[in-house]
């Protein structure tokens, strides 16, 4: 998908989101006894999102017609999104297996799945990073990081 | 006389062992970050901001500012050795710096870059010291309508943060403003856009948003790329890093040019170090006796842009510390940091917290000296950072981001928020929506809403309060002019094109 196509979709989403913001703002008082109410600011923000979102969507569509085709900007995004999913999974695991072990697993995932490194190398890098974090934050700075059943 | 007394106060703060230590940590870290092409000072400051919450605030700003101006020193190393700017502000340095390295003068290029950075960086701090206090005194006349106008002017800085599209910047700004409305209303205590989440009643955590949008997004962008580049060797020995007397003589004008242009352009919000370095390079070439040699490895072609991008750091702190207006990514995050630590950046900052302002100014003198002393002998060591593989650096950044955000409120919710903002930041970068505009909206949204509602309460709903008060009217007029600039430029370009077509 080209940049113009993607921008048009994103701008359309923002315009729709603006409608939601206007709706959300309209559920709050626009003015009260002493001046503008809590809905005043969000309503105008929503209006701005709708107007600018619609304008951007139309201008991106016009650019799409002008350029025709265009190259995709998402070619490397599989790796980036894979990294993000790995990071999200690691955050989900914080509560269950603690920060340190989650970081080892995240590092191993990034190295093996995305960087095509060997499993032992990934394990060593993960263990070194986890040790650095544990020494620096937990022991030296006393930060209470989420701990697993084994106490770290 | 006042300035001297205040500066002495500043040095008494900056020269305490703890502040000196954190100044050193800041500038070393800044240099390292400047060397690494994938990681900028904005992302680093965002990442480390949560860890500064438990520090003394003056110490924290000294350390973070050290990263800010230290990165400018480091940025030249990759430009010269790799032809790959560590920072966008070092792009101009590639032109002659890398050519000098190819001609076997890498050491002299790095040396002159450090000396120019030191001279211009020091001139920049001098400018900050002399200009900021009177500007802040002027700002003391401000009441809510003037604050509203000032914040509106701050929001128009989005014009300068906009890359290829002004509308994209405005959209990012409005999303930031909306994010600022999340939580409990300032005046009525009603909840807004909290989606039933009690954890959102206090608003969107600024640290989670900033770390996500800058640091996590930076990692995701880096994950896309593969492969490395060839690093040119730095000749060993301090002697090889010292420029010759002839080099220094050739750079006389470049030092002055870089210092003045860098400071002035830096103080103009939004212009930034990149513009300053190119302007300075252009001027140097324009007045040179041998302009044809520029681009082949002339020493002035390194000194001018490197000086400019360092003097810019002092200039950029002027609007931030006196009016609370950030001019770019890093200063927007520093502004958020000041608010997070409980300060109200603006005209009262210098008066209410002289130890913070003058301590920072004095620490910048010390920091620049430390950078000069460290950079000359340690350049070969800093160059080694380039050999650090991405697969070690990226999980480290993700880990530090998670720890930083978690440690603020011991909240996993904030870590999730950071991850989501990371994804948002990534998409914004891919589609050229400026992330700094979103942060600008998030930081200033709360303040501008409060000032607007207070002003309208004062005037009982009469909007003319903003145009009948001279300072407020002037600030709003400047804001309108700035907002119209892109449209004027577009019309002018269109007219020129039309005239050319007819011809």
Task: Report on this structure.
- The complex is a heterodimer of chains A (152) and B (503).
- In chain A, strand 1 and strand 2 form a beta hairpin.
- Chain A starts with a helix and ends in a 12-residue tail after the last helix.
- Chain A has two domains: 3-67; 77-140, no CATH class.
- In chain A, 38% of the residues are buried.
- In chain A, strands 1-2 form a two-stranded antiparallel ribbon.
- Chain A has helices spanning 3-26, 40-67, 77-114, 119-140; strands at residues 31-32, 35-36.
- The model of chain A has no long low-confidence stretch (mean pLDDT 90).
- The longest helix of chain A is centred in the middle third of the chain and has 38 residues, at 77-114.
- Chain A has 152 residues and is mainly alpha-helical.
- Chain B is mostly helical.
- Helix content of chain B is 74%, strand content 1%.
- Chain B has 22 helices and two strands.
- Chain B has helices at 2-14, 17-35, 41-48, 57-82, 91-102, 106-139, 144-155, 158-161, 166-181, 206-224, 245-250, 252-267, 272-287, 300-323, 329-340, 348-352, 354-384, 390-409, 412-430, 435-458, 465-468, 470-502; strands at 183-184, 191-192.
- Chain B has a two-stranded antiparallel sheet.
- In chain B, strand 1 (183-184) and strand 2 (191-192) form a beta hairpin.
- In chain B, helix 4 crosses helix 5.
- The termini of chain B are far apart.
- The model of chain B has no long low-confidence stretch (mean pLDDT 84).
- Classes of the chains: A mainly alpha (152), B mainly alpha (503).
- At the A-B interface, helix 1, strand 1, strand 2, helix 2 and helix 3 of A face helix 9, helix 10, helix 18, helix 19 and helix 20 of B.
């Amino acid at each position: 998908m080209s940049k113009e196509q993607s921008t048009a979709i994103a701008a359309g989403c923002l315009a729709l989101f603006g409608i939601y913001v206007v709706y959300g703002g309209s559920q709050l008082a626009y003015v009260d006894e002493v001046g503008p109410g809590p809905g005043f600011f969000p309503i105008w923000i929503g209006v701005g999102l709708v107007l600018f979102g619609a304008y951007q969507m139309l201008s991106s569509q016009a650019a799409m017609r002008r350029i025709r085709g265009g190259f995709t900007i998402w070619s490397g995004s599989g790796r980036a999104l894979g990294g993000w999913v790995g990071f999200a999974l690691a955050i989900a695991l914080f509560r269950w297996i603690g920060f340190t072990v989650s970081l080892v697993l995240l590092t191993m995932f990034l190295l093996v799945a995305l960087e095509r490194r060997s499993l032992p190398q990934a394990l060593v890098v993960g263990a070194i990073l986890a040790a650095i974090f544990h020494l620096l934050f937990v022991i030296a700075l006393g930060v209470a990081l989420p701990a697993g059943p084994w106490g770290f | 006389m006042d300035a001297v007394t205040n500066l002495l106060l500043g040095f008494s703060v900056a020269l305490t062992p703890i502040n000196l230590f954190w100044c050193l940590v800041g500038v070393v870290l800044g240099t390292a970050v400047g060397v690494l092409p994938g990681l900028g000072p904005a992302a680093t400051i965002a990442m480390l901001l949560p860890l500064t919450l438990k520090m003394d605030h003056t110490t924290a700003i000294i350390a973070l500012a050290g990263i800010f101006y230290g990165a400018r020193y480091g940025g030249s190393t990759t430009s010269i050795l790799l032809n790959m700017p560590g920072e966008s502000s070092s792009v101009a340095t590639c032109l002659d710096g890398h050519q000098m390295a190819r001609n076997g003068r890498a050491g002299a290029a790095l040396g002159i870059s450090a000396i120019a950075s030191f001279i211009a960086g020091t001139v920049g701090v001098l400018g900050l010291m002399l200009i900021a206090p009177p500007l802040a005194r002027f700002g003391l006349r401000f009441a809510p309508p003037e604050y509203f106008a000032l914040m509106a002017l701050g929001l128009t800085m989005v014009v300068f943060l906009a890359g290829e599209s002004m509308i994209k910047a405005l959209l990012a700004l409005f999303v930031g403003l909306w994010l600022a409305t999340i939580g409990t209303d300032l005046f009525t205590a009603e909840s807004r856009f909290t989606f039933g989440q009690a954890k959102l009643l206090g608003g969107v955590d600024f640290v989670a948003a900033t770390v996500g949008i800058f640091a996590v997004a930076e990692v995701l962008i880096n994950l896309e790329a593969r492969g490395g580049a060839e690093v040119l060797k730095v000749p060993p020995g301090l002697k090889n890093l010292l420029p010759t007397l002839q080099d220094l003589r050739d750079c006389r004008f470049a030092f002055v040019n870089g210092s003045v242009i860098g400071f002035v352009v830096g103080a103009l919000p939004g212009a930034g170090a990149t513009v300053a370095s190119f302007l300075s390079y252009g001027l140097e070439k324009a007045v040179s006796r041998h302009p044809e040699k520029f681009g082949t490895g002339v020493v002035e072609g390194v000194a001018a842009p490197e000086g400019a991008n360092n003097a810019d750091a002092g200039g950029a702190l002027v609007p931030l510390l006196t009016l609370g207006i950030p001019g770019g990514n890093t200063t927007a995050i520093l502004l958020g940091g000041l608010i997070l630590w409980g300060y109200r950046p603006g005209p009262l900052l210098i008066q209410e917290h002289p130890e913070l302002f003058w301590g920072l100014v004095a620490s910048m003198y010390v920091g620049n000296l430390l950078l000069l002393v460290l950079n000359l002998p340690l350049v070969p060591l800093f160059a080694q950072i380039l050999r650090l593989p991405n697969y070690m650096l990226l999980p480290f950044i993700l880990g530090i981001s998670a720890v930083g955000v978690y440690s603020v409120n011991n909240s996993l919710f904030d870590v999730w928020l950071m991850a989501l903002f990371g994804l948002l930041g990534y998409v914004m970068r891919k589609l050229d929506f400026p992330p700094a505009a979103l942060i600008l909206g998030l930081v200033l949204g709360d303040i501008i809403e409060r000032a607007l509602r207070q002003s309208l309460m004062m005037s009982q709903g009469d909007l003319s309060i903003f145009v009948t008060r001279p300072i407020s009217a002037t600030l709003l007029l400047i804001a309108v002019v700035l907002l119209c600039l892109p449209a004027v430029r577009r019309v002018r370009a269109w007219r020129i094109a039309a005239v050319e077509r007819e011809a």
